[in-house]
């Protein structure tokens, strides 16, 4: 495993196991399997609706809590100082943990400032070891860092060979914010797993395209989250520390960048509408 050290000295595994879109029925087993094959960094979120199952998987794994790095994210319907703080306390109870290693604000909308003040307070109290954001553009990240007591330590954004976040990465490095990637495989969109450039590099190293993508992120000093419900694939995704991509291979992957999301644009007002509808739909099911 490789590690990064956050601005406050907290050490974070560079490769984590994500549970987005893992069903409640499978989450506990998947988390336990991931720990068994060697993952020590687990990423969940309030909006994934599987925090309780993640906690069960951690307990089922039998591993000591101190060996794990656990992240969750505050969902936008829980934004605002009071509600954000209370939501993190609920997350701790659902996970069955005394503290979290990292808590992120999941989206750059609604009452970001009030929510951030709640995370700052939880951090000072020691209930959270590090705090950060997700899906923040460079200007939103700069704003939050400039006008608050504690600047974000992490920014988790979509990052993959087709959306490489080059400019955003440079801004994060300049502000000592660790870049973390969600959807490193782009859910296979745009033919990522059959892309000729990635496939040739994979063949040359005797690795899979997924392993090449994760290795590429490691060499960019980007923390990555890999998801699979299959134990053998979990182990395969973790098996990326025995080879290096050459400069020419890194440059070849750089040519694949389209600078566009494979999912949705956070700077598009319709994205706000989408999340508003998502919150409304979930309340309708409650």
How would you sum up the global shape? globular
Helical/strand content category = alpha/beta
Low-confidence spans: pLDDT under 50, at least 5 residues?
none
**What's the architecture, going by CATH?**
Alpha-Beta Barrel
Helix content: 40-55%
- CATH classification class: Alpha Beta
Amount of beta strand:
5-15%
Strand order of the largest sheet: 3-4-5-6-7-8-9-10
Q: Give the total of domains.
A: 1
Radius of gyration: 18 Å
- Sheet with the most strands, sense and barrel status: 8 strands, parallel, barrel
Helix count, per DSSP?
Answer: 11
Report the span from N to C terminus.
41 Å
Calculate the mean pLDDT score and round it. Answer: 96
Indicate the CATH topology: TIM Barrel
Task: Give a verbal description of the structure.
The chain is 44% helix and 14% strand. It has 286 residues and is of the alpha/beta class. It has a single domain (3-285), classed as NADP-dependent oxidoreductase domain (TIM Barrel, Alpha-Beta Barrel).
Per-chain topology:
Elements: E1 3-5, E2 11-13, E3 15-18, H1 24-37, E4 41-43, H2 51-61, E5 69-74, H3 81-95, E6 102-105, H4 112-124, E7 131-134, H5 138-146, E8 154-158, H6 166-174, E9 178-182, H7 196-205, H8 209-219, E10 223-226, H9 231-238, H10 247-254, H11 269-285
Parallel strand pairs: 3-4, 3-10, 4-5, 5-6, 6-7, 7-8, 8-9, 9-10
Antiparallel strand pairs: 1-2
Site (Lowers pKa of active site Tyr): 73
Family: Belongs to the aldo/keto reductase family.
Protein name: 2,5-diketo-d-gluconic acid reductase
